[in-house]
Structure formats: structure tokens, C-alpha cells
Amino acid sequence: MASRNIFSTRKSNNRRFALNALTKRRHLKPLETAIFLILFFAFFAGLAYKMTLPLMLNTFMQTAYHLLLETVLYIMAITVMTGAISKLFVEFGVVGLMEKLLRPLMKPLYNLPGVASLGAVMTFLSDNPAIITLSKDKSFSKFFKQYQLVSLTNFGTAFGMGLVVIAFMVGRGYGSGAMVGLIGAVIGSIISTRIMQHSTLKKFPELAAEVPTESLKEEKLIVTDEPKTGTFLRVLNSILDGGKSGVEIGVAIIPGVLVISTLVMMVTFGAGASGQYTGGAYEGVPLLPWLADKIDFVFYWLFGFEHSELIAFPITALGAVGAALGLVPTFDVAGLLDNNAIAVFTAMGMCWSGYLSTHTAMLDSLGYRKLIGKAIGAHTIGGLFAGICAHWLYFLVALI
Q1: Minimal CA–CA distance to 346: which of 109, 172, 98?
Q2: Which residue of 235, 290, 330, 345 shows the fewest CB atoms closer than 10 Å?
Q3: Which residues neighbour 303 within 8 Å (Cβ) at sequence distance 6 or greater?
Q4: Angle at 318 (CA atoms; ends 247, 323), nearest 5 degrees
């Protein structure tokens, strides 16, 4: 009887808490709407005041259009080709081989079971969500403690779209910078994963327990199915299926590249070559460089950036690495890039990989929403160190 009363009291308290939260949200919604409208109109009114409204609107559309033709389609071509290669790697056991070679490094570097190496390989070849697919597989997650499983969000994100990022940079002619950036991304992933594990255990020591999964009979991860057809058909099917997945990734990055990159460019670059606004693509009000110039010595010492406009890349990579890649061709044409900048871009682009837009959904799907703040904080630090390490590593390489 007493237990029933306790249960009823808890249920009543939960209902009261939910009603209070709903009421609070209803009261805050008008204020939220007002703040949004003020910020929205202030942003575009500032641009229109400097550029005039017709030219601002034309620049907005022209920039998005040029990004679609000159950058998005190029990135999509890369994702299709890398998707086909990735599928071939899976089909013919290359992924399994890579996983076995990397397995001994997991415990000393990341404090993760050896099977976590598969997560690094899969996210590197595809995108961040691949790590969630693996972590929900009981034959994979049974090797982890709970705090280790949660840290996979940081670990996997640090390698997301890695192959696409590196292929993009190499395709622009900056191979050495991209390779140094890959090392920087690995360092950032170690820092992010370790910080996440430490902060999680400190706040929630109960997560040191094993992941509650059903035990399986053997420690074996199935990376690919047994071949059921001839070699030629396996190659053909892998190429077509991988290319199709590449198209899906390419389509998925279109909104980020067009919307985010356009907005970032409009607060990064100034008027046209004549010094006057023409309504052409890639014009804007250089607000971001103006702010960066106030502390440019910090960015120069940390990242080696000689042009304040370059800070736009890591800022954009916070939300979407695909959108950040959309900035690179414009920087290149403007003569702002060198291999040091590419090393930092690769490291921070891979490590951050749009974590602000993915960490929330990833941890929510794992059932650890309460750890979102810790994951974001740890990954912010990891990405910064990835860029710093890439810069100083490239500095040492240049000396040699």
C-alpha cells in the first residue's frame, strides 16, 4: 500500500513538472519570437544599409547559384567517387584489414576497446551517423563500458567525412597540407574522446558499469557478407551502391553549403574588384574579418592564419564541414590559401565535422541526452587543439 502511494506521488510530481515546463515554454515563446525577429531584421538591415537592398538580394542569390554550380557539384562528384571506393573496400575486406591493423592502438590512445577502430574506419569513409549505427549493434556495444560507449560520439565525429575532406583538399593541389591535417585531426580526436570520458565519469560514476546488452557467443564483427556472386558482379554492385550512397551524401550537404556558406561569405568578403557593390557573387560586408582583426595575433600564433578571412572556415565547420569546404575555392581564387591553412582546415574540418548540428541527435538516439553539453564542450577543445597541432606540425615539416 505504501509503495503504491509512493508511486502515485512520483507520478503526480512528474505530471506537475511536465505541466510547469509546458507553461514556461508557452510564456517564453512570444519573447523568443520577438528576439528572433529583431536579430533577423537587424542582420539583413545592416547588410542592406551597406549594399542597398536590391544588390544585397542579388548577391545572396548569385552567391548561392555559383556555389551550387562551382562547389556543390564538385563535392558531390567527390562523394560519389569516394562512396564507390568505400563500398569496394567493404566488399573485398579492406575495411576489415584496416580495422585489425588499427585495433591495437585503441586502448592506449583512446581508452576504448579494439573494436572501436571499426567506428573510425566507417565514419572516415562515410559520415558521423555511421558510429551510431555501430553503437546500437549489440555485437559491437557489448565490448564497451557505458562511459566509453557515450564517448564514441566524440570519437566517431572526429573522423566524419574524412575521406571526402582529404580528397577535396588534394584535388585542390594541397596534398601535403591535407596529410598533416589528418595527423592533427587524430590528435584532436584523442583529446576530445579522453576529455569526454573523464568528465562523464566524474559527473556520473555509475556509467563505469558495462553496457547492458545481451551476451553473444563469439567476439566477431561481421563487416561484409559472404560473397554470393561472381567477382565482376560484386565489383559492379559495389560501385553502383557506393556511388548511390555518395549521391545521398552530396544531396544532404546542399542546404548547408548554399545557406550557411552564402551567409558566411556575405559577412566575410567586401565589395567587388572595383570597390563598388555590383550585386555579383561573393560580395558582402567584411564583418567577420573586422572582428578577427581585433585579435588577429591570436589566430596567427595558434593557427598561422595570415589573413583574417580564413577564420570563416573553422566557424562554418562547427555546423557543417561540407559548407566549410564551400569556402575553400573562393579563398583559393583570392590567393589566401597555403598548405599551412589547408592543414588547419583539414584538421578542424575533420575533427569538428559539424558537431554542433549532430552531437545532440547522436546522443539523444543513444539515450544519453544529459551528456550533450559535456560532449560539445569536449569536442570544442579537441577541435581547437587539432588546428593548433596541425599548424605547428606543418611548421616543423616546413623546417625539414
Answers
A1: 172
A2: 290
A3: 310, 341, 344, 387, 388, 391
A4: 35
